[in-house]
């Protein structure tokens, strides 16, 4: 792809890159603009890993997960050699668990069929599991210096405000891609993309944009009109339904908790759970102790609430004791729970039944609340 750089685009990219050279965020997967100018190249494995993790998740949340993954699996061949159960455990709490399954599948292909080297072009990257339009463009641009139309939520906000584009999401994505194709300079495409992301994350923020600090504010149409908060234009959201169900926390005589694995496909696929009823985005699950997997003296604990992408969930929490369980599952001591592949919703359930259980407190970041496929 060849950029059609007119004078306005050149002025925009020059001002933005000058700002980025001074104010680039320090991120564990990023090569600083200073180091990049000295010839230090990004690690495609780090770029890919971070971009997959950052889908629907905040930078603050991803940092610790990224550090953990590269410590456990320093290279993509190490990740390919890992057991999928260990990958899912390391991912637990980050949400959108299909990303973890696709991450492992992608690592397997790159390590086995490509000698551990990612393809450089967006169209080739898109053939790999879990890599779509945005991720392929971001990897190609940041890791390999390809000029690609990278558009994420931060970039959408910057572009729609700069142009005061009234087209609502998601249709406006097309206009944003055109802008990025035209404005991305051939000599520093990766830095430009990351500068756009940083501008949206630190200056052109959703609620309180710091327009006086913006390097491109002179020509920003929304800024001139004082209409920044009107962009990007969003259609009214559909109201999420609230589904109900029950979850059952079972302990044996030594205090261990019964866990089992969810089906590989579907909501929270392949993750660990405590027994629960068959709730989905489209239907309620059974409630009450009669829905329990075994008969025992059940005690009702505090109701928990959880938000998925397409629905809210309210779960009754029942706590009981039993020494023998049949079926596929295992007993886990409370101190072992942080190493299990438990999504946040089941961490909440166990914490409701056992307030003193050794569990990390469920966080309130968007990425951890939206544990779905």
Give an overview of the whole structure:
By secondary structure, the protein is of the alpha+beta class. It has 2 domains: 7-230, Endonuclease III, domain 1, CATH 1.10.340; 242-369, Nucleoside Triphosphate Pyrophosphohydrolase (Alpha-Beta Complex). It is built from 15 helices and 6 strands. It has a 3-stranded mixed beta sheet, with helices on one face. Strands 3-2-6 form a 3-stranded antiparallel beta sheet, with no helix packed on it. The radius of gyration is 23 Å and the shape is globular. The relative contact order is 0.13.
Task: Describe what is shown at a glance.
This protein is α+β, with helices and mostly antiparallel strands and 373 residues long.
In one word, what is the shape?
globular
Per CATH, the class of the largest domain reads Mainly Alpha
**Radius of gyration, whole Å:** 23 Å
Mean pLDDT: 91
What's the total number of strands?
A: 6
Q: Say which CATH homologous superfamily of the largest domain is assigned.
A: Hypothetical protein, domain 2
Please describe the topology of this protein:
Elements (H helix, E strand, L loop, with lengths): L6 H17 L9 H5 L6 H11 L4 H14 L3 H6 L2 H8 L6 H16 L8 H4 L7 H12 L8 H11 L9 H11 L5 H14 L18 H5 L16 E10 L5 E5 L10 E2 L25 E9 L4 E10 L8 E3 L11 H10 L12 H4 L4
Parallel strand pairs: 1-5
Antiparallel strand pairs: 2-3, 2-6, 4-5
């Amino acid at each position: 792809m060849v950029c059609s750089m007119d004078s306005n685009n050149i002025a925009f990219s020059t001002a933005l890159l000058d700002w980025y050279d001074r104010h680039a965020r320090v991120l564990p997967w990023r090569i600083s603009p200073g180091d990049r100018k000295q010839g230090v190249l990004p690690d495609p494995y780090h770029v890919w890993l971070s971009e997959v993790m950052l889908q629907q998740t905040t930078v603050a949340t991803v940092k610790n997960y990224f550090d953990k993954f590269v410590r456990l699996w320093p290279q993509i061949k190490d990740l390919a050699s890992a057991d999928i159960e260990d990958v899912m455990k390391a991912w637990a709490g980050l949400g959108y668990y299909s990303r973890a399954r696709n991450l492992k599948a992608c690592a397997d292909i790159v390590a086995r069929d490509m000698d551990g080297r990612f393809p450089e072009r967006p169209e080739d990257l898109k053939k790999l599991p879990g890599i779509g339009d945005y991720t392929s463009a971001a990897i190609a641009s940041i890791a390999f210096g390809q000029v690609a139309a990278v558009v994420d939520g931060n970039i959408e906000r910057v572009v729609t405000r700069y142009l005061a584009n009234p087209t609502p999401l998601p249709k406006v994505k097309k206009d944003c891609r055109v802008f990025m194709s035209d404005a991305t300079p051939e000599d520093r495409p990766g830095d430009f993309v990351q500068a756009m992301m940083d501008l949206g994350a630190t200056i052109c923020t959703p609620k309180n944009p710091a327009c006086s600090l913006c390097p491109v504010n002179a020509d920003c149409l929304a800024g001139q009109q004082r209409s920044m908060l009107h962009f990007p234009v969003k259609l009214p959201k559909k109201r999420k339904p609230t589904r109900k169900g029950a979850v059952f926390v079972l302990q044996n005589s030594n205090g261990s908790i019964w866990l089992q694995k969810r089906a590989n496909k579907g909501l929270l696929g392949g993750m660990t759970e405590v027994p629960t009823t068959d709730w989905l985005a489209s239907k309620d699950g059974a409630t009450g102790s009669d829905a329990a997997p075994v008969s025992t003296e059940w005690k009702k604990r505090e109701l928990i609430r959880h938000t998925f992408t397409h629905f809210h969930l309210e779960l009754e929490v029942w706590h009981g004791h039993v020494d023998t369980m049949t079926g596929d599952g295992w007993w886990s001591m409370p101190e072992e729970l942080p190493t299990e592949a438990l999504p946040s919703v089941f961490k909440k359930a166990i914490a409701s039944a056992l307030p003193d259980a050794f569990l990390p407190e469920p966080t309130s970041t968007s990425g951890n609340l939206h544990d779905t496929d």
